[in-house]
Amino acid sequence: MHDMPDIGDHLTEFTDARLARVERLEWDEDNRLVARLVGCAEPVVDVKLAKYFPWSRPDSYVSVRNADGKEVALVRLLDELDDESRRIAEAELRDKIFNPRIVKILEFRHEFGIYSVTAETDRGRAIFQFRGRDDIRILSPTRALFRDADGNAYELPDLNALDAASCRHLVPFF
Amino acid sequence: MMVCMVSGIDTNNDPLGRLPEELGRRIRRDLGETEALAAASFDLDGHGMFAEGCLVLTADRLGCYSRPNGDWAGQWMAVGDLAKAEIVEGLGMGLLRVRGDGLAPREFRFTLRHAKEVARLHRRLERMLDGGNGADADAPLDESAGPEQKKLRCGKCGQVIPAWSEICQACMNRRKILFRLLDFVRPYGARAIGAFLLALLLTGVALAQPWLARPLVNEGFGAKPGVAASFRVVVLVVVAMAGLMAFRVLVQMIQLRLSLGLGTAVSRDVRNRIYAHLHKLSLSFFAKRQTGALVTRVTNDTERLWYFVSSTCIDMVLAFLTLAGVGVCLFVMNWKLAIFAMLPVPVMLGLMVVFHKRLHRSFDRMWHRWAQLTAVVGDALPGVRVIKAFSQEPREVRRFQDRSNALYDVEVEYIGGSRSVFGPTMAFCSGLASLIVWLLGGWWLSKGQTDLGTLMAFQMYLAMFLGPIHQIAHMDEMLNRAATSAQRIFEILDTEPAIFSRTGARKADGVTGRIELRNVSFSYDGVRKVLRNIDLTIEPGEMIGLAGPSGGGKTTMVNLISRFYDALEGQILIDGVDIREYDVATLRRKIGVVLQEPFLFHGTILENIAYGKPEANIEEIIAAARAANANDFILGFPDGYDTMVGERGQTLSGGERQRISIARAILNNPTILILDEATSSVDTETEQLIQEALNRLTASRTTIAIAHRLSTLRRASRLVILEKGVLIEQGSHDELSEKEGGLYAKLLRMQRESQSVMGLATD
pTM for this one? Predict the structure, then answer.
């Protein structure tokens, strides 16, 4: 439990205090995610998780939505779940949200106006292509997202953590 | 700071100051001690021909001056005898008609040039006829200062100012402008002086080298009669030259560093200053100008200054120093030869000036035609659908080809007329100097009056001449360009904001939202009134619906309450205090705005919602988004609240933008809310969501809604109907819709009829 920060009176009715809290997350036999909510007898089956702030606050504010897409609970910090539920939540997020993180650049070509990259990521080896500055979103002086032609986002969490060769390829984009 | 009038000249606030001297003197003589309250020229007669005349208004008389027989003569009538004064607008002209009991109506016609002065005089006269005394306590302090206008005429000389400039080209004092630039250089004084001293040093070093040629040839190669060749001397001289060269490279590197660094620092300072100042200026400044032109000033013009300060200045200094140095060296070596060798120089300078003028003119025409060509392409390609629909492709291609050929023609003229002649001619002239040195020098050499070393040195010095001369010929153009850029920047820096907080202005933090408009009138251009004598009181928490035909003044009223403009006449009070007494920033923070076309900045959804309150915490922001029924669709995006919107970001639908805009307003928790309802339609479900969001936003806030939706109009506690700037009627929806012959009732009927024609359900 953490303290609720100050909110203006006109907004209190719209905080997620109305939403239920998650007691437990578990898988059912059909591999669907089930959420048990505090104060609710019935578990909610087949919930989907979504991040409110996937890039600026990836470990906070995870929305739990039912099969109709309606938000039934909000997890403010993954820490507030018990260990097992937290593990399940993280696995689910990693499974359903595909965001590879670039660890090393193996090959980097620029021809015909397209950048072709072969990179080692935390999800394995990836080959992707992007067109140029328009497809890059700079999140901070050392962090960027590369959106490839298929729409996948490849994250570079820290430019400085790369080895020198990989770094050299990507520095011009910052 | 002078306030420039748009028409005529005004060096102080004396109404007679604008009139021609002779007339002014005559009027002053006739008036004696009496003060002239207003004066306006009129310049058309009853047959539509140009004429000369002027009107003068005093506390109790109106005078009309004309000169039918060559001398100015005035006719006066008592204001007391007049009953009515009105301005009738024509096309390109207007007339002021005054009537009185028993008096035949008099008409004074004027062209647009004098429209403002006449309007001013007319306002005063009207007030006097209404029972005032010509002065108005509620009028703004300086009646003549309308919202910041783009000046049409120069305040000093009356010349028209070109569209692309803010300043008078005739009055542009180049020297003063460039000196003003020094203010920006001042913080870097050390760097500037250092760069200059190094330039001096560089010139010295450059001049030293040819000097060394003399001993090299005379003693080293034994060219002087009676002197044996000495390889030792050759070695010494070459080593000295090498040393000089190395030294020169070093000095140049430092000098370039200094001068380029100086230019970069100055242009950064200028950029920052001009941008910061732009944000101090009021809405009226931006309303009158294309933002593109302003962007150019911040970027292009500052870049030009960068180039000027870092390169051109030093180059010019170097050029002058080199020329002077070379001249001195030549004269010291052999003044007789020097005189003859320098003969082509004035010719070259003259030719350069002539050529540059011609080149410049051709270049100007080329640039213009190039712009026209680009315009054709820029016009046609976006409209390709229309072109195809009307099968006008051949015509468009022909249009382009015409422009392309026109460009070709002028390019050929540029090449043939100037460019191809210029370079070779210059080379010939400088070659001439060289020949003169060989010829004369050779002659004197054969007579034993000079030596080969001197001749070689001469030739080397002459080679140093061409570059500096070129630069000096360029100088005029460079200075002009830099001065123009500098002046454009200074113009903005010199513009005073029309809306500003007085010192010691009170903070608006505690306002409850009681708004009162007392006899408020407003005009954007100073001539045509967009709001007339509005009296309105809004209690805290009330929801007022502004309605009426388009152009009625609704948006203007809302702009005045937000203090984007100041009223021309009358007062606006918030919580009983004149709006001008409040600190502008805190006041505006108390006023929330939801526009018709919500403007979202390039940034994430999170940043856009938190725009007015960057210190807001996450809980607040999410709560505001929920209240605006925006949270659901935001979570639907893969990037959630981190989704980029605006330029090159996610394209949001109209309904989504509206709701983010509403969330932004809810987060700010304003006391007064201004809602400019979107007229574009969205699907019913989205409409309901937006409506619910708006209801939450407007609850318990003083709201002024420019309403289009019937549901909003019905919810309003009171409706205010404006037509042509006049408040026609007030009341609730029920009251007004029943009113016999009421405007609102009529508008409702018209809307219902048009909807029933389309078969839509009426609200």
Answer: 0.70
